[in-house]
Amino acid sequence: MPSLDSILRGVTKPARYTGGEWNALVKGWETTPVRIALAYPDVYEIGMSNMAIPILYDILNRQPDVLAERVYAPWVDMAAALRRAGTPLFSLESRHPLSDFDILGFSLGYELTYTNVLNMMDLAGIPVYSEERDGGSFPLVIAGGGACLNPEPMADFIDLFVIGEGEEVVVEFLELYRGLRSNTGERPDRRELLRAAAAIPGVYVPRFYEVRYHAGSGILSSFAPIAPDAQCRIQRRVVATLPPPVTRPVMPYIEIVHDRGAVEVQRGCSRGCRFCQAGVIYRPVRERPLEEVEQAVTQLVRNCGYSEVSLLSLSTSDYGGIDKLIAGLSDRFRAENLSLSLPSLRIDNFSLDLIEALPEGRKMGLTFAPEAGTERLRQAINKPISDDVILETVTAAYQRGWRSLKLYFMIGLPTETMEDVDGISRLVGRIVQAGKLKGNLPRVRVSAGIFIPKPHTPYQWLPQETPDSLIPKCESLKVGLRRAKASFSWPDTATSFLEAALSRGDRRIGKVIRRAWETGCTFDAWSERFDQAKWQEAFIYCGLTPHFYAHRTRSLDELLPWAHIDVGVGQAFLRREFERTLAARATPDCRSGLCQVCGLQQASASCRRKYAALLSEKGAEAVGRSGGVAEH
Length: 632
Hints:
Layout: H1 4-8, E1 34-40, H2 44-47, H3 52-61, E2 66-72, H4 76-85, E3 103-107, H5 114-123, E4 140-144, E5 160-162, H6 169-180, H7 190-197, E6 203-204, E7 209-213, E8 220-225, E9 234-235, E10 261-264, E11 266-267, H8 278-281, E12 286-287, H9 290-304, E13 308-312, H10 322-332, E14 339-341, H11 349-356, E15 366-371, H12 375-380, H13 387-399, E16 404-411, H14 418-437, E17 443-450, H15 467-483, E18 487-489, H16 493-503, H17 509-518, H18 532-541, H19 546-550, E19 565-566, H20 571-582, H21 605-618, H22 620-626
Protein backbone atom coordinates (compact mmCIF):
# COMPACT_ATOMS: atom_id res chain seq x y z
CA MET A 1 0.00 0.00 0.00
CA PRO A 2 1.45 3.43 -0.94
CA SER A 3 2.46 5.63 1.98
CA LEU A 4 0.54 8.81 2.70
CA ASP A 5 3.62 10.84 1.80
CA SER A 6 3.71 9.32 -1.67
CA ILE A 7 0.00 9.99 -2.10
CA LEU A 8 0.38 13.63 -1.08
CA ARG A 9 3.23 14.19 -3.54
CA GLY A 10 0.82 13.50 -6.39
CA VAL A 11 -2.05 15.85 -5.48
CA THR A 12 -2.67 19.58 -5.61
CA LYS A 13 -2.36 21.54 -2.37
CA PRO A 14 -1.17 18.63 -0.20
CA ALA A 15 -1.25 20.92 2.88
CA ARG A 16 -5.01 20.43 2.82
CA TYR A 17 -4.43 16.94 4.24
CA THR A 18 -1.31 17.08 6.41
CA GLY A 19 -2.72 18.49 9.65
CA GLY A 20 -0.28 19.62 12.33
CA GLU A 21 -1.40 23.25 12.18
CA TRP A 22 -0.75 25.77 14.93
CA ASN A 23 -3.37 25.47 17.72
CA ALA A 24 -4.57 22.06 16.51
CA LEU A 25 -5.31 19.76 19.45
CA VAL A 26 -4.09 16.17 19.50
CA LYS A 27 -5.30 14.08 22.44
CA GLY A 28 -4.26 10.57 23.33
CA TRP A 29 -6.29 8.20 21.18
CA GLU A 30 -6.04 5.22 23.51
CA THR A 31 -6.71 7.24 26.67
CA THR A 32 -9.68 9.29 25.45
CA PRO A 33 -12.93 7.30 25.55
CA VAL A 34 -15.18 9.36 23.21
CA ARG A 35 -13.84 10.15 19.74
CA ILE A 36 -15.63 12.55 17.41
CA ALA A 37 -14.76 13.55 13.84
CA LEU A 38 -16.08 16.97 12.78
CA ALA A 39 -16.62 16.96 9.02
CA TYR A 40 -17.15 19.81 6.60
CA PRO A 41 -18.24 18.61 3.14
CA ASP A 42 -16.14 21.00 1.07
CA VAL A 43 -12.45 21.64 0.55
CA TYR A 44 -10.15 22.69 3.36
CA GLU A 45 -9.97 26.36 2.29
CA ILE A 46 -13.74 26.74 2.56
CA GLY A 47 -14.23 24.54 5.61
CA MET A 48 -11.53 26.33 7.59
CA SER A 49 -13.41 29.59 6.97
CA ASN A 50 -16.59 28.18 8.51
CA MET A 51 -17.48 29.39 12.02
CA ALA A 52 -19.40 26.31 13.23
CA ILE A 53 -16.54 23.80 13.19
CA PRO A 54 -14.17 25.89 15.41
CA ILE A 55 -16.96 26.46 17.96
CA LEU A 56 -17.75 22.75 18.27
CA TYR A 57 -14.05 21.84 18.14
CA ASP A 58 -13.45 24.10 21.13
CA ILE A 59 -16.49 22.95 23.14
CA LEU A 60 -15.85 19.24 22.59
CA ASN A 61 -12.11 19.30 23.24
CA ARG A 62 -12.74 21.07 26.54
CA GLN A 63 -14.42 17.84 27.69
CA PRO A 64 -11.66 15.76 29.36
CA ASP A 65 -12.99 12.44 28.03
CA VAL A 66 -13.64 13.64 24.46
CA LEU A 67 -11.37 14.23 21.50
CA ALA A 68 -12.63 16.09 18.44
CA GLU A 69 -10.70 16.05 15.19
CA ARG A 70 -11.37 17.60 11.78
CA VAL A 71 -11.85 16.30 8.26
CA TYR A 72 -12.72 18.12 5.04
CA ALA A 73 -13.83 16.86 1.65
CA PRO A 74 -10.79 15.76 -0.36
CA TRP A 75 -10.58 17.33 -3.79
CA VAL A 76 -11.16 15.08 -6.80
CA ASP A 77 -7.48 14.17 -7.25
CA MET A 78 -7.02 13.24 -3.59
CA ALA A 79 -10.24 11.20 -3.52
CA ALA A 80 -9.07 9.24 -6.57
CA ALA A 81 -5.63 8.72 -5.02
CA LEU A 82 -7.16 7.40 -1.79
CA ARG A 83 -9.31 4.94 -3.72
CA ARG A 84 -6.38 3.71 -5.83
CA ALA A 85 -4.27 3.20 -2.71
CA GLY A 86 -7.06 1.59 -0.72
CA THR A 87 -6.49 4.20 2.00
CA PRO A 88 -9.64 5.24 3.93
CA LEU A 89 -10.39 8.92 4.49
CA PHE A 90 -8.76 10.06 7.72
CA SER A 91 -8.83 12.89 10.25
CA LEU A 92 -6.24 15.66 10.18
CA GLU A 93 -5.12 15.52 13.81
CA SER A 94 -4.29 11.83 14.28
CA ARG A 95 -4.81 10.46 10.75
CA HIS A 96 -7.15 7.78 12.06
CA PRO A 97 -9.72 6.46 9.57
CA LEU A 98 -13.13 8.03 10.06
CA SER A 99 -14.60 4.58 10.66
CA ASP A 100 -12.57 4.37 13.90
CA PHE A 101 -14.45 7.30 15.45
CA ASP A 102 -17.51 6.88 17.65
CA ILE A 103 -19.34 9.82 16.09
CA LEU A 104 -19.03 11.47 12.68
CA GLY A 105 -20.63 14.92 12.67
CA PHE A 106 -21.30 16.86 9.46
CA SER A 107 -21.88 20.61 9.24
CA LEU A 108 -24.48 21.16 6.51
CA GLY A 109 -24.78 24.77 5.45
CA TYR A 110 -25.35 24.43 1.71
CA GLU A 111 -27.46 21.98 -0.28
CA LEU A 112 -24.96 21.59 -3.13
CA THR A 113 -22.53 19.83 -0.77
CA TYR A 114 -24.86 16.87 -0.19
CA THR A 115 -23.11 14.53 -2.65
CA ASN A 116 -19.82 15.30 -0.88
CA VAL A 117 -21.30 13.91 2.35
CA LEU A 118 -21.97 10.58 0.66
CA ASN A 119 -18.56 10.61 -0.99
CA MET A 120 -16.77 11.24 2.31
CA MET A 121 -18.60 8.38 4.03
CA ASP A 122 -17.86 6.04 1.14
CA LEU A 123 -14.17 7.04 1.10
CA ALA A 124 -14.09 6.15 4.80
CA GLY A 125 -15.66 2.73 4.23
CA ILE A 126 -18.88 3.76 5.99
CA PRO A 127 -22.20 2.72 4.36
CA VAL A 128 -24.06 5.81 3.17
CA TYR A 129 -27.56 4.68 4.18
CA SER A 130 -28.36 4.89 7.88
CA GLU A 131 -30.13 1.55 7.93
CA GLU A 132 -27.06 -0.18 6.44
CA ARG A 133 -24.97 0.86 9.43
CA ASP A 134 -27.10 -0.94 12.02
CA GLY A 135 -25.42 -4.29 11.60
CA GLY A 136 -21.82 -3.21 12.05
CA SER A 137 -19.56 -1.19 14.28
CA PHE A 138 -19.80 2.08 12.40
CA PRO A 139 -19.77 5.64 13.75
CA LEU A 140 -23.04 7.33 14.58
CA VAL A 141 -23.53 9.90 11.79
CA ILE A 142 -25.07 13.18 12.91
CA ALA A 143 -25.57 16.52 11.16
CA GLY A 144 -26.34 20.12 12.04
CA GLY A 145 -26.28 23.50 10.35
CA GLY A 146 -28.59 25.84 8.47
CA ALA A 147 -29.49 23.35 5.73
CA CYS A 148 -30.80 20.94 8.38
CA LEU A 149 -33.83 23.16 8.93
CA ASN A 150 -35.21 21.03 6.12
CA PRO A 151 -33.51 17.73 6.95
CA GLU A 152 -35.67 15.51 4.72
CA PRO A 153 -33.46 15.34 1.58
CA MET A 154 -30.64 13.85 3.72
CA ALA A 155 -32.88 11.86 6.09
CA ASP A 156 -31.94 8.45 4.64
CA PHE A 157 -28.23 9.04 5.27
CA ILE A 158 -28.08 10.75 8.68
CA ASP A 159 -28.80 8.94 11.96
CA LEU A 160 -29.54 12.07 13.97
CA PHE A 161 -29.99 15.76 13.16
CA VAL A 162 -29.36 18.64 15.56
CA ILE A 163 -31.95 21.29 14.76
CA GLY A 164 -30.80 24.83 15.51
CA GLU A 165 -27.84 26.03 17.54
CA GLY A 166 -25.69 23.17 18.73
CA GLU A 167 -23.58 24.59 21.55
CA GLU A 168 -25.80 23.20 24.32
CA VAL A 169 -27.25 20.17 22.51
CA VAL A 170 -23.87 18.53 21.93
CA VAL A 171 -23.09 18.65 25.65
CA GLU A 172 -26.48 17.14 26.52
CA PHE A 173 -26.01 14.41 23.92
CA LEU A 174 -22.57 13.58 25.31
CA GLU A 175 -24.06 13.12 28.77
CA LEU A 176 -26.54 10.66 27.28
CA TYR A 177 -23.80 8.88 25.33
CA ARG A 178 -21.65 8.45 28.44
CA GLY A 179 -24.58 7.05 30.39
CA LEU A 180 -25.38 4.42 27.76
CA ARG A 181 -21.82 3.33 27.08
CA SER A 182 -20.99 -0.05 28.59
CA ASN A 183 -18.59 -0.51 31.47
CA THR A 184 -16.04 -1.95 29.02
CA GLY A 185 -16.16 1.24 26.93
CA GLU A 186 -18.05 -0.35 24.03
CA ARG A 187 -20.21 1.93 21.91
CA PRO A 188 -23.87 2.10 22.99
CA ASP A 189 -26.43 0.05 21.13
CA ARG A 190 -27.37 2.23 18.15
CA ARG A 191 -31.14 1.88 18.37
CA GLU A 192 -31.16 2.35 22.15
CA LEU A 193 -29.01 5.46 21.78
CA LEU A 194 -31.23 6.90 19.05
CA ARG A 195 -34.42 6.21 21.02
CA ALA A 196 -33.02 8.04 24.03
CA ALA A 197 -31.61 10.89 21.92
CA ALA A 198 -34.97 11.47 20.26
CA ALA A 199 -36.28 12.80 23.58
CA ILE A 200 -33.67 15.60 23.69
CA PRO A 201 -35.18 18.91 22.56
CA GLY A 202 -33.78 19.86 19.18
CA VAL A 203 -32.85 16.31 18.15
CA TYR A 204 -34.52 14.71 15.12
CA VAL A 205 -34.10 11.01 14.34
CA PRO A 206 -35.60 10.45 10.86
CA ARG A 207 -36.10 6.67 11.18
CA PHE A 208 -38.69 7.23 13.92
CA TYR A 209 -41.10 8.98 11.55
CA GLU A 210 -43.36 7.64 8.81
CA VAL A 211 -43.86 9.70 5.67
CA ARG A 212 -46.73 9.24 3.22
CA TYR A 213 -47.64 10.93 -0.06
CA HIS A 214 -50.84 11.39 -2.04
CA ALA A 215 -50.86 8.78 -4.80
CA GLY A 216 -51.99 11.13 -7.54
CA SER A 217 -50.29 14.45 -6.83
CA GLY A 218 -47.18 13.24 -5.03
CA ILE A 219 -47.76 15.89 -2.38
CA LEU A 220 -46.93 14.99 1.21
CA SER A 221 -50.06 13.62 2.90
CA SER A 222 -48.86 12.77 6.40
CA PHE A 223 -45.81 12.87 8.64
CA ALA A 224 -46.08 11.07 11.95
CA PRO A 225 -43.81 9.72 14.72
CA ILE A 226 -43.74 5.94 15.04
CA ALA A 227 -41.57 5.67 18.18
CA PRO A 228 -42.63 6.49 21.77
CA ASP A 229 -39.98 9.15 22.43
CA ALA A 230 -40.15 10.86 19.04
CA GLN A 231 -41.47 14.41 19.24
CA CYS A 232 -44.34 15.43 16.94
CA ARG A 233 -42.57 18.71 16.23
CA ILE A 234 -38.86 19.27 16.73
CA GLN A 235 -38.16 22.66 18.23
CA ARG A 236 -35.13 24.57 17.04
CA ARG A 237 -32.61 24.98 19.83
CA VAL A 238 -31.76 28.57 20.67
CA VAL A 239 -28.83 29.52 22.89
CA ALA A 240 -30.01 32.25 25.26
CA THR A 241 -26.52 33.60 25.93
CA LEU A 242 -23.82 33.25 23.32
CA PRO A 243 -20.87 31.17 24.53
CA PRO A 244 -17.42 32.76 24.73
CA PRO A 245 -15.88 33.36 21.29
CA VAL A 246 -13.17 31.02 20.04
CA THR A 247 -9.88 32.85 20.58
CA ARG A 248 -7.42 30.06 19.80
CA PRO A 249 -8.60 28.68 16.44
CA VAL A 250 -6.55 26.29 14.33
CA MET A 251 -4.25 28.29 12.04
CA PRO A 252 -4.12 27.01 8.45
CA TYR A 253 -0.88 26.39 6.58
CA ILE A 254 -2.36 27.61 3.29
CA GLU A 255 -4.46 30.62 2.38
CA ILE A 256 -8.15 30.06 3.03
CA VAL A 257 -11.21 31.89 1.74
CA HIS A 258 -11.55 34.15 4.79
CA ASP A 259 -7.93 34.36 5.86
CA ARG A 260 -8.41 36.51 8.95
CA GLY A 261 -9.57 36.34 12.53
CA ALA A 262 -13.28 36.51 13.27
CA VAL A 263 -15.40 37.38 16.28
CA GLU A 264 -19.18 37.00 16.21
CA VAL A 265 -20.45 40.23 17.78
CA GLN A 266 -24.13 39.27 17.64
CA ARG A 267 -26.34 36.48 16.36
CA GLY A 268 -29.69 36.97 14.67
CA CYS A 269 -31.26 39.84 12.75
CA SER A 270 -34.56 41.63 13.30
CA ARG A 271 -34.76 43.50 9.99
CA GLY A 272 -37.12 40.92 8.55
CA CYS A 273 -36.06 40.83 4.88
CA ARG A 274 -38.64 38.40 3.52
CA PHE A 275 -36.30 36.56 1.15
CA CYS A 276 -33.72 35.88 3.87
CA GLN A 277 -33.79 32.47 5.54
CA ALA A 278 -30.96 33.38 7.92
CA GLY A 279 -33.07 36.24 9.28
CA VAL A 280 -35.67 33.67 10.38
CA ILE A 281 -33.62 30.70 11.53
CA TYR A 282 -31.17 32.72 13.64
CA ARG A 283 -33.73 34.82 15.53
CA PRO A 284 -33.85 36.34 18.10
CA VAL A 285 -31.06 38.92 18.20
CA ARG A 286 -28.45 38.27 20.89
CA GLU A 287 -25.53 40.65 21.35
CA ARG A 288 -22.22 39.96 23.00
CA PRO A 289 -21.21 42.53 25.63
CA LEU A 290 -18.83 45.10 24.20
CA GLU A 291 -16.15 44.22 26.75
CA GLU A 292 -16.34 40.55 25.77
CA VAL A 293 -15.82 41.42 22.10
CA GLU A 294 -12.84 43.66 22.90
CA GLN A 295 -11.27 40.95 25.05
CA ALA A 296 -11.88 38.31 22.36
CA VAL A 297 -10.22 40.42 19.67
CA THR A 298 -7.25 41.02 21.98
CA GLN A 299 -6.82 37.31 22.72
CA LEU A 300 -7.27 36.37 19.05
CA VAL A 301 -4.51 38.72 17.98
CA ARG A 302 -2.21 37.57 20.79
CA ASN A 303 -2.82 33.85 20.20
CA CYS A 304 -2.77 33.83 16.41
CA GLY A 305 -0.92 36.92 15.21
CA TYR A 306 -3.73 38.06 12.95
CA SER A 307 -3.33 41.47 11.33
CA GLU A 308 -7.02 41.56 10.32
CA VAL A 309 -10.11 40.71 12.36
CA SER A 310 -13.68 40.61 11.08
CA LEU A 311 -16.57 41.59 13.37
CA LEU A 312 -19.26 39.16 12.23
CA SER A 313 -23.03 39.52 12.25
CA LEU A 314 -25.94 39.32 9.83
CA SER A 315 -26.15 43.10 10.21
CA THR A 316 -23.01 44.40 11.90
CA SER A 317 -24.03 48.06 11.93
CA ASP A 318 -27.05 47.11 14.08
CA TYR A 319 -24.80 46.00 16.94
CA GLY A 320 -25.43 48.32 19.87
CA GLY A 321 -22.39 50.51 20.47
CA ILE A 322 -20.65 49.47 17.25
CA ASP A 323 -19.14 52.94 16.87
CA LYS A 324 -17.77 52.80 20.43
CA LEU A 325 -16.43 49.30 19.80
CA ILE A 326 -14.56 50.36 16.66
CA ALA A 327 -13.14 53.44 18.37
CA GLY A 328 -11.95 51.36 21.32
CA LEU A 329 -10.34 48.65 19.17
CA SER A 330 -8.73 51.22 16.89
CA ASP A 331 -7.16 52.96 19.85
CA ARG A 332 -6.06 49.73 21.53
CA PHE A 333 -4.37 48.30 18.41
CA ARG A 334 -3.02 51.48 16.87
CA ALA A 335 0.59 50.33 17.35
CA GLU A 336 -0.08 46.86 15.89
CA ASN A 337 -1.69 48.36 12.77
CA LEU A 338 -4.63 45.97 13.13
CA SER A 339 -7.18 46.06 10.34
CA LEU A 340 -10.88 45.58 11.16
CA SER A 341 -13.52 44.51 8.65
CA LEU A 342 -17.27 44.98 8.96
CA PRO A 343 -19.36 42.72 6.72
CA SER A 344 -23.11 43.13 6.28
CA LEU A 345 -23.53 46.89 6.59
CA ARG A 346 -26.69 48.85 5.86
CA ILE A 347 -26.78 51.33 3.01
CA ASP A 348 -26.59 54.60 4.90
CA ASN A 349 -24.15 57.28 5.97
CA PHE A 350 -23.78 55.69 9.42
CA SER A 351 -22.14 52.71 7.72
CA LEU A 352 -19.76 55.09 5.94
CA ASP A 353 -18.91 56.72 9.27
CA LEU A 354 -18.10 53.28 10.69
CA ILE A 355 -15.86 52.34 7.78
CA GLU A 356 -14.16 55.73 7.93
CA ALA A 357 -13.37 55.09 11.59
CA LEU A 358 -11.65 51.78 10.87
CA PRO A 359 -7.89 51.60 11.43
CA GLU A 360 -5.88 52.66 8.36
CA GLY A 361 -9.02 54.20 6.78
CA ARG A 362 -8.57 51.99 3.74
CA LYS A 363 -10.41 52.94 0.54
CA MET A 364 -10.23 49.54 -1.19
CA GLY A 365 -13.92 49.31 -2.00
CA LEU A 366 -17.44 49.31 -0.59
CA THR A 367 -20.02 46.56 -0.84
CA PHE A 368 -23.75 47.17 -0.46
CA ALA A 369 -26.83 45.06 -1.20
CA PRO A 370 -29.85 47.04 -2.46
CA GLU A 371 -31.30 43.64 -3.60
CA ALA A 372 -33.91 45.18 -5.94
CA GLY A 373 -33.92 47.93 -8.56
CA THR A 374 -37.08 49.81 -7.57
CA GLU A 375 -38.46 51.19 -4.34
CA ARG A 376 -41.72 49.28 -4.87
CA LEU A 377 -39.95 45.92 -4.97
CA ARG A 378 -37.71 46.80 -2.04
CA GLN A 379 -40.86 47.58 -0.05
CA ALA A 380 -42.34 44.24 -1.12
CA ILE A 381 -39.35 42.24 0.10
CA ASN A 382 -39.18 44.35 3.28
CA LYS A 383 -35.90 46.06 2.53
CA PRO A 384 -37.37 49.57 2.36
CA ILE A 385 -34.41 51.66 1.21
CA SER A 386 -35.24 54.59 -1.01
CA ASP A 387 -33.32 55.50 -4.15
CA ASP A 388 -32.50 58.83 -2.52
CA VAL A 389 -30.84 57.16 0.47
CA ILE A 390 -28.82 54.90 -1.82
CA LEU A 391 -27.67 57.84 -3.94
CA GLU A 392 -26.90 59.99 -0.89
CA THR A 393 -24.79 57.18 0.54
CA VAL A 394 -22.76 56.51 -2.60
CA THR A 395 -22.32 60.25 -3.21
CA ALA A 396 -20.95 60.63 0.31
CA ALA A 397 -18.66 57.66 -0.36
CA TYR A 398 -17.31 59.35 -3.50
CA GLN A 399 -16.75 62.57 -1.55
CA ARG A 400 -14.75 60.65 1.07
CA GLY A 401 -12.45 59.12 -1.50
CA TRP A 402 -13.96 55.76 -2.41
CA ARG A 403 -13.82 54.85 -6.11
CA SER A 404 -14.85 51.21 -6.17
CA LEU A 405 -18.34 49.91 -5.38
CA LYS A 406 -19.81 46.41 -5.47
CA LEU A 407 -23.59 46.11 -5.50
CA TYR A 408 -25.62 42.95 -4.91
CA PHE A 409 -29.06 42.44 -6.45
CA MET A 410 -31.40 39.50 -6.91
CA ILE A 411 -33.32 38.44 -10.00
CA GLY A 412 -36.63 36.59 -9.82
CA LEU A 413 -37.93 38.07 -6.56
CA PRO A 414 -41.66 37.68 -5.85
CA THR A 415 -43.83 40.24 -7.73
CA GLU A 416 -40.81 41.29 -9.85
CA THR A 417 -41.56 42.71 -13.30
CA MET A 418 -39.31 43.68 -16.17
CA GLU A 419 -39.72 47.24 -14.96
CA ASP A 420 -38.04 46.23 -11.70
CA VAL A 421 -35.21 44.53 -13.59
CA ASP A 422 -34.67 47.59 -15.78
CA GLY A 423 -34.75 49.61 -12.56
CA ILE A 424 -31.43 48.00 -11.59
CA SER A 425 -29.76 49.42 -14.70
CA ARG A 426 -31.30 52.83 -14.13
CA LEU A 427 -30.23 52.91 -10.47
CA VAL A 428 -26.70 51.77 -11.28
CA GLY A 429 -26.52 54.35 -14.06
CA ARG A 430 -27.38 57.09 -11.56
CA ILE A 431 -24.76 55.73 -9.15
CA VAL A 432 -22.08 55.84 -11.86
CA GLN A 433 -23.17 59.33 -12.91
CA ALA A 434 -22.98 60.54 -9.29
CA GLY A 435 -19.33 59.52 -9.24
CA LYS A 436 -18.59 61.33 -12.48
CA LEU A 437 -20.20 64.52 -11.16
CA LYS A 438 -17.70 64.39 -8.28
CA GLY A 439 -14.87 64.26 -10.78
CA ASN A 440 -14.27 60.53 -10.26
CA LEU A 441 -14.05 57.57 -12.59
CA PRO A 442 -16.01 55.10 -10.43
CA ARG A 443 -15.60 51.35 -10.80
CA VAL A 444 -19.00 49.79 -10.18
CA ARG A 445 -19.43 46.02 -10.20
CA VAL A 446 -22.88 44.46 -10.08
CA SER A 447 -23.52 40.91 -8.95
CA ALA A 448 -26.99 39.47 -9.42
CA GLY A 449 -28.05 36.30 -7.66
CA ILE A 450 -31.08 34.23 -8.57
CA PHE A 451 -33.76 34.21 -5.89
CA ILE A 452 -34.50 30.84 -4.27
CA PRO A 453 -37.63 30.62 -2.09
CA LYS A 454 -36.36 28.90 1.04
CA PRO A 455 -38.14 26.90 3.78
CA HIS A 456 -39.32 28.78 6.87
CA THR A 457 -39.57 32.12 5.05
CA PRO A 458 -42.65 34.05 3.90
CA TYR A 459 -41.85 32.84 0.37
CA GLN A 460 -41.77 29.11 1.16
CA TRP A 461 -45.04 28.60 -0.72
CA LEU A 462 -43.86 30.33 -3.90
CA PRO A 463 -42.13 28.83 -6.96
CA GLN A 464 -38.71 29.76 -8.19
CA GLU A 465 -38.85 31.55 -11.51
CA THR A 466 -38.03 29.27 -14.43
CA PRO A 467 -34.84 29.64 -16.51
CA ASP A 468 -36.97 30.52 -19.55
CA SER A 469 -38.12 33.62 -17.67
CA LEU A 470 -34.85 34.40 -15.88
CA ILE A 471 -32.51 34.31 -18.88
CA PRO A 472 -34.23 37.18 -20.77
CA LYS A 473 -34.07 39.26 -17.59
CA CYS A 474 -30.35 38.61 -17.25
CA GLU A 475 -29.78 39.47 -20.92
CA SER A 476 -31.72 42.71 -20.57
CA LEU A 477 -29.78 43.57 -17.43
CA LYS A 478 -26.50 42.83 -19.17
CA VAL A 479 -27.34 45.31 -21.95
CA GLY A 480 -28.52 47.97 -19.50
CA LEU A 481 -25.44 47.70 -17.27
CA ARG A 482 -23.10 47.81 -20.25
CA ARG A 483 -24.78 51.08 -21.18
CA ALA A 484 -24.34 52.27 -17.58
CA LYS A 485 -20.60 51.43 -17.72
CA ALA A 486 -20.79 48.83 -14.93
CA SER A 487 -19.47 45.27 -14.94
CA PHE A 488 -21.93 42.44 -14.35
CA SER A 489 -21.80 38.86 -13.09
CA TRP A 490 -24.57 36.39 -12.36
CA PRO A 491 -24.78 32.73 -11.33
CA ASP A 492 -25.72 29.80 -13.52
CA THR A 493 -29.48 29.25 -13.65
CA ALA A 494 -28.97 25.46 -13.62
CA THR A 495 -27.19 25.39 -10.24
CA SER A 496 -29.79 27.75 -8.74
CA PHE A 497 -32.51 25.46 -10.08
CA LEU A 498 -30.90 22.45 -8.41
CA GLU A 499 -30.43 24.34 -5.14
CA ALA A 500 -34.13 25.25 -5.15
CA ALA A 501 -35.14 21.62 -5.75
CA LEU A 502 -32.86 20.27 -3.01
CA SER A 503 -33.63 22.91 -0.41
CA ARG A 504 -37.41 22.41 -0.83
CA GLY A 505 -37.25 18.64 -1.24
CA ASP A 506 -38.90 15.83 0.69
CA ARG A 507 -37.45 12.49 1.75
CA ARG A 508 -37.70 11.05 -1.77
CA ILE A 509 -34.96 13.44 -2.88
CA GLY A 510 -32.47 11.24 -1.03
CA LYS A 511 -32.71 8.66 -3.83
CA VAL A 512 -31.83 11.37 -6.34
CA ILE A 513 -28.81 12.50 -4.32
CA ARG A 514 -27.62 8.89 -4.07
CA ARG A 515 -28.03 8.33 -7.81
CA ALA A 516 -26.28 11.59 -8.75
CA TRP A 517 -23.35 10.70 -6.50
CA GLU A 518 -23.15 7.17 -7.96
CA THR A 519 -22.84 8.65 -11.46
CA GLY A 520 -19.95 10.88 -10.40
CA CYS A 521 -21.47 14.10 -9.00
CA THR A 522 -19.40 15.77 -6.29
CA PHE A 523 -18.51 19.41 -5.57
CA ASP A 524 -21.70 20.49 -7.33
CA ALA A 525 -21.25 24.09 -6.15
CA TRP A 526 -18.07 24.32 -8.24
CA SER A 527 -18.77 25.40 -11.83
CA GLU A 528 -16.05 23.13 -13.24
CA ARG A 529 -17.62 20.13 -11.48
CA PHE A 530 -21.35 20.73 -11.86
CA ASP A 531 -22.98 18.31 -14.33
CA GLN A 532 -26.57 19.24 -15.07
CA ALA A 533 -27.11 16.22 -17.34
CA LYS A 534 -26.22 13.76 -14.57
CA TRP A 535 -28.61 15.41 -12.15
CA GLN A 536 -31.38 15.37 -14.75
CA GLU A 537 -30.73 11.67 -15.31
CA ALA A 538 -30.82 11.07 -11.54
CA PHE A 539 -34.27 12.65 -11.21
CA ILE A 540 -35.59 10.63 -14.16
CA TYR A 541 -34.04 7.41 -12.81
CA CYS A 542 -35.86 7.95 -9.50
CA GLY A 543 -39.19 8.81 -11.15
CA LEU A 544 -39.13 12.41 -9.91
CA THR A 545 -38.87 15.83 -11.50
CA PRO A 546 -37.00 18.85 -10.11
CA HIS A 547 -39.77 21.13 -11.39
CA PHE A 548 -42.15 19.60 -8.82
CA TYR A 549 -39.92 20.97 -6.05
CA ALA A 550 -38.55 24.17 -7.57
CA HIS A 551 -41.27 25.55 -9.84
CA ARG A 552 -44.55 24.60 -8.15
CA THR A 553 -46.71 26.98 -6.14
CA ARG A 554 -47.82 25.49 -2.81
CA SER A 555 -51.19 26.21 -1.29
CA LEU A 556 -51.06 27.85 2.12
CA ASP A 557 -52.57 24.74 3.70
CA GLU A 558 -50.27 22.18 2.04
CA LEU A 559 -48.27 19.98 4.39
CA LEU A 560 -44.71 21.04 3.68
CA PRO A 561 -41.78 18.59 4.04
CA TRP A 562 -40.26 20.75 6.78
CA ALA A 563 -43.51 21.36 8.71
CA HIS A 564 -42.35 19.14 11.60
CA ILE A 565 -39.41 21.49 12.22
CA ASP A 566 -40.49 24.31 14.53
CA VAL A 567 -38.07 27.22 14.09
CA GLY A 568 -40.03 29.34 16.57
CA VAL A 569 -41.33 31.79 13.96
CA GLY A 570 -45.02 31.05 13.51
CA GLN A 571 -46.84 30.22 10.29
CA ALA A 572 -49.32 33.04 10.95
CA PHE A 573 -46.47 35.55 10.91
CA LEU A 574 -45.02 34.07 7.71
CA ARG A 575 -48.42 34.18 6.00
CA ARG A 576 -48.90 37.79 7.08
CA GLU A 577 -45.51 38.72 5.67
CA PHE A 578 -46.35 36.89 2.45
CA GLU A 579 -49.57 38.91 2.12
CA ARG A 580 -47.70 42.14 2.79
CA THR A 581 -45.41 41.31 -0.12
CA LEU A 582 -48.39 41.32 -2.47
CA ALA A 583 -49.37 44.73 -1.09
CA ALA A 584 -45.76 46.01 -1.33
CA ARG A 585 -45.99 46.92 2.33
CA ALA A 586 -43.05 46.98 4.74
CA THR A 587 -43.01 45.67 8.31
CA PRO A 588 -41.15 47.81 10.89
CA ASP A 589 -38.03 46.47 12.54
CA CYS A 590 -39.02 45.28 16.02
CA ARG A 591 -35.70 46.47 17.45
CA SER A 592 -36.71 50.07 16.88
CA GLY A 593 -40.47 49.64 17.30
CA LEU A 594 -43.06 47.34 18.78
CA CYS A 595 -42.90 43.54 18.81
CA GLN A 596 -44.18 42.04 15.54
CA VAL A 597 -45.34 38.81 17.27
CA CYS A 598 -43.28 36.52 15.04
CA GLY A 599 -43.63 33.68 17.55
CA LEU A 600 -40.39 34.22 19.46
CA GLN A 601 -41.71 36.91 21.80
CA GLN A 602 -40.68 34.86 24.84
CA ALA A 603 -37.30 33.81 23.46
CA SER A 604 -35.17 36.58 24.95
CA ALA A 605 -35.41 39.33 27.54
CA SER A 606 -35.46 41.95 24.77
CA CYS A 607 -38.32 40.17 22.99
CA ARG A 608 -40.29 39.85 26.22
CA ARG A 609 -39.96 43.59 26.87
CA LYS A 610 -41.08 44.43 23.32
CA TYR A 611 -44.05 42.09 23.58
CA ALA A 612 -45.07 43.55 26.93
CA ALA A 613 -44.97 47.03 25.40
CA LEU A 614 -47.16 45.84 22.54
CA LEU A 615 -49.72 44.34 24.92
CA SER A 616 -49.73 47.56 26.92
CA GLU A 617 -50.32 49.70 23.84
CA LYS A 618 -52.68 47.48 21.83
CA GLY A 619 -54.22 45.22 24.43
CA ALA A 620 -54.16 41.43 24.47
CA GLU A 621 -57.46 41.13 22.57
CA ALA A 622 -56.32 43.34 19.69
CA VAL A 623 -52.98 41.56 19.40
CA GLY A 624 -54.66 38.16 19.43
CA ARG A 625 -57.28 39.22 16.88
CA SER A 626 -54.75 40.56 14.38
CA GLY A 627 -52.19 37.82 15.00
CA GLY A 628 -49.66 40.58 15.47
CA VAL A 629 -49.38 44.24 14.58
CA ALA A 630 -50.49 44.26 10.98
CA GLU A 631 -52.17 47.63 11.42
CA HIS A 632 -49.40 49.19 13.51
